[in-house]
Design goal:
heterodimer; A: 326 residues; alpha/beta; Rossmann fold; 10 helices; B: 343 residues; five-stranded parallel sheet; 12 helices
Amino acid sequence: MEVTYLKAINQALHEEMRRDENVYVMGEDVAELGGAFKVTEGLLQAFGEQRVIDTPIAETLIVGAAIGSAVLGMRPVVEMQFADFISCGFDQIANMAATLRYRHGGHASCPMVVRSPSGSGVHGGIFHSQNPEAWFTRVPGLKVVCPATAYDAKGILKAAIRDDDPVLYFEHKRLYRSIKEDLPEGDFTVPIGIAELRRPGNDLSIITYGGTMHQSLDAARIVEKEDGLSVEVLDLRTLLPLDRGAILATAQKTGKVLIVHEDRLTGGIGGEVAAIIAEHAFEHLDGPVRRLAMADTHNAFSPPLEEFILPNTNKIVAAVRALAAY
Amino acid sequence: MPEAHGPLPSTDGAARIEFELQLYYWMKLIRAFEERVSRLHRQNKILGGVYSGAGQEAIITGVCAPLQEGDFISPLHRDLGVFLIRGVEPGALMAQLMAKETGLSRGKDSGLHAGDLERGIFGSTSMLGSSLPVAVGAALKFRVKQQRNVAVAFFGEGTSSRGDVHEAMNFAGVHKLPVVFVCENNRYAYSTPIEKQMAIEDVADRAQAYGFRGHTCSGNDLLEVLDLSERVIEKVRSGGGPVLIECKTYRYHGHSEHDPALYRTKDEVLEWESRDPIQRFEFYLEKKGQDIRHVREQFDERVHAIIQGAVDFAEQSRWPEGPEALEDLYATPVGPPVASQLG
């Protein structure tokens, strides 16, 4: 059966809550309303109010309480209503959860998942469009995942829930209802920390994740048809830990790398990916590593402004052509 | 090492006498341990910040005494005694303070940022107050799993200004969770006096805004703390919802050992020293017929031996090796190999 990206997340929650009674869901409007985006719809009816908990507007409390229950063996999946609001729970994530195992000499686990609807292209404006993932990719102790397909959305969330460390799960709002695919029956997980080659190619590599993964695939098809270029697309899927092996393999194979993401250019994960390639695949390169990302500004609201600052298929096509011609 | 677990002997019989002597012993042990830590810090044997709780021993002793196995405690940076009362090896605690490999965090962090979850102790961070939402989460687990346990969250009056405290108390109130919020009001947030921290007299007043009771007591009077905490913890344990206990107290030392605390007058310090919780309890024991001089000597000797043993253990323990800094980050190690990180 064809399942949307949104439904895939919902299925993962249902299945994991059925599988393990320690899994529970907590956040703003997740119970009665089923979430602002309906991602948690039906959970309250299926599992009751002890395991599907509406909270006050209090991100510090949401993450903090998740941590407290997680160290005692629960597996909370909490929702930031919009990824933009994760800043309000920042201290609990970056200082409390991330350092927990370390501070306790290895004798404490925090199996918590923080789900955050992220990304632009939905007329959200400055505080409902952000991609805050890179704030966290430099915090050891955390894992950061950004699934781009319905299959990954489901499989990675299931893996995240079963993981013994805190996982920040950034789902892309624009993908919720815009993509769907046939999912296999039965239980499956997608391992955290493993990138996926979405499209093989020989001339050039696009390394991307999340919302821009689909635009990159579109761009690759266009340049193949119009320019005869064979473009490889690597979907990172996990930003922490990065799949260094897959990054280096594609860089070594094609010798030309374009990194694309919707997060801002400066300080985005693209800088780290470029550095890994520069350090370890320099002699394989046939051109500069290029980055295409959101401009270093805020998530402007007006459509022409948003269009101007964000990557899209046309911009990726242009960047691929320029790099191919280098 | 004595354990805090088990029901309290409430009668006036021999068991009660033994229990009271146990409490006295804990306060003596905590005071002596901390004074030794301060001395070691002056001798440069303890690096980093040392935050003495001298003067505040009655609070943790009185609050921890009625706790049971499985209860959750998030102590303050000044609550080293919680570790001792809950039965953490004094040697491991001293090694933690000396940054040795045998410490609770294996050298990963200083002071009391480490915990011992087997004994229900959760290590806090330096962002004081951030452990209150965590304690509320522990209580949420007790509720969901129908466990008869309580979560105890210690915090200072300075911390009570933080939003974390509001978020935690509000949620605990909404869901009537088994949390005991214990405010150690020692009148100073580092150098800032209470008048500049809040427009009210009692932190306990805030509880009302969250729909539960707030109590004040003298934090320097062990019997007062104990009497209140026994009653309150039993109520919280049997599903009565959260409670806030505010214990008025004073720290003898500065905020840390680096702080000469010149913002306080000598008279003020002397006045509080005259209300010393240990001395006060000694008077009480004496009045009840104990040969306090004899007991004190006995305990001093015992405490001294334990602390010397802890210091010896910590000093003889090895330092952690550099690459161990990359351990204990994840359940299963991830990330690039060490060599590629160090260039």
